[in-house]
């Protein structure tokens, strides 16, 4: 068996957020050793609120110099819905409201790559343009074969989807495009764009952030890796990303799950 993902579980979401902060800051440090930027991709859903808890509050003994250097952050969306930014389904809108608008002045402003609203009715064009944005960001110094994000932060749906990669969907077999359109998402809204599986698994680090008892059945399948769990999108990320993958959960989400590599940060 190849190297496995790591599982970190905490009693509360606040506790999880404090440890997620430490993890993100260590990813930031590693990124700055590679280049003068921190290239991150984020999903939608409950992640934005947990990220805000993690990033807006410094740890009690934290050196201010080692906190988030937002002016060097380049934020992309791991998936996005084809809706205007003020629509409640917009992942950009959600991140802006929960996190970006709350970053204190003086802590810098991240460069955020949102979708081009001129093409909301054409998912292929949206995806192509988003891929162009990735190409301009990653082309100069990094490998252009597949962009290598410093960190990808993901959620896990109750059906085992991640990004907008859904169980059994043909997009799971996409191996050329970096960003793909989807017109038939089983979770509304149907028209979206998503990073493809190879881009996700190529990242230096991949973190799932999953909370709440509603996720424990699907996490059991994914983390105990039964046949079904291994074929789910989150299971495929675990398999492709191996030890680069870390799961940050609260205790409720992993109640009754047996997993060999439980650790603490
Ligand atoms: O657009 C989406 O559907 C999200 O980006 C998706 O991938 C999300 O991360 C999961 O559905 C988990 O969402 P929750 O954390 O809200 O359950």
From TrEMBL:
Say if the entry is tagged with keyword Hydrolase.
yes
Q: Which GO terms describe its biological process?
A: carbohydrate metabolic process; pentose-phosphate shunt
Molecular-function annotations in GO: 6-phosphogluconolactonase activity
Residues covered by the Glucosamine/galactosamine-6-phosphate isomerase domain: 12-246
Gene3D superfamilies xref list: 3.40.50.1360
Protein's pathway: Carbohydrate degradation; pentose phosphate pathway; D-ribulose 5-phosphate from D-glucose 6-phosphate (oxidative stage): step 2/3
According to UniProt, the reaction catalysed is: 6-phospho-D-glucono-1,5-lactone + H2O = 6-phospho-D-gluconate + H(+)
- Which key words are in the record? Hydrolase
Q: Which InterPro entries match?
A: 6-phosphogluconolactonase_DevB, 6PGL, Glc/Gal-6P_isomerase, NagB/RpiA_transferase-like
The EC code for this enzyme is 3.1.1.31
NCBIfam families xref list: pgl (TIGR01198)
What this protein is reported to do is described as: Hydrolysis of 6-phosphogluconolactone to 6-phosphogluconate.
Say which family it is in. Belongs to the glucosamine/galactosamine-6-phosphate isomerase family. 6-phosphogluconolactonase subfamily.
Protein name per Swiss-Prot or TrEMBL: 6-phosphogluconolactonase
Its organism's taxonomic lineage begins at: Eukaryota, Fungi, Dikarya, Ascomycota, Pezizomycotina
């Amino acid at each position: 068996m190849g190297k496995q993902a790591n599982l970190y579980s905490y009693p509360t979401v606040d506790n999880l957020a404090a440890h997620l902060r430490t993890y993100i800051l260590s990813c930031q440090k590693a990124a700055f050793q590679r280049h003068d930027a921190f290239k991150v991709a984020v999903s939608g859903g409950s992640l934005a609120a947990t990220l805000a808890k993690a990033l807006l509050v410094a740890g009690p003994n934290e050196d201010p110099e080692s906190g988030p250097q937002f002016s060097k952050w380049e934020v992309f969306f791991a998936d996005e819905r084809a809706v205007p930014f003020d629509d409640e389904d917009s992942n950009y809108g959600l991140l802006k409201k929960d996190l970006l608008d709350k970053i204190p002045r003086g802590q810098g402003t991240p460069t955020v790559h949102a979708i081009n609203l001129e093409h909301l009715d054409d998912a292929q064009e949206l995806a192509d343009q988003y891929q162009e944005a990735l190409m301009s960001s990653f082309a100069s110094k990094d490998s252009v074969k597949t962009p290598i994000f410093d960190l990808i932060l993901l959620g896990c749906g109750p059906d085992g989807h991640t990004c907008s990669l859904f169980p059994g969907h043909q997009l799971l077999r996409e191996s050329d495009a970096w960003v793909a359109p989807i017109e038939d998402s089983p979770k509304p809204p149907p028209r979206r764009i998503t990073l493809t599986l190879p881009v996700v698994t190529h990242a230096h680090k991949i973190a799932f952030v999953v909370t709440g008892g509603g996720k424990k059945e699907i996490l059991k399948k994914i983390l105990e890796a039964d046949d079904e769990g291994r074929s789910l999108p989150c299971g495929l990320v675990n398999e492709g990303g191996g030890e680069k993958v870390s799961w940050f959960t609260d205790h409720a989400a992993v109640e009754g799950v047996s997993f060999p590599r439980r650790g603490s940060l």
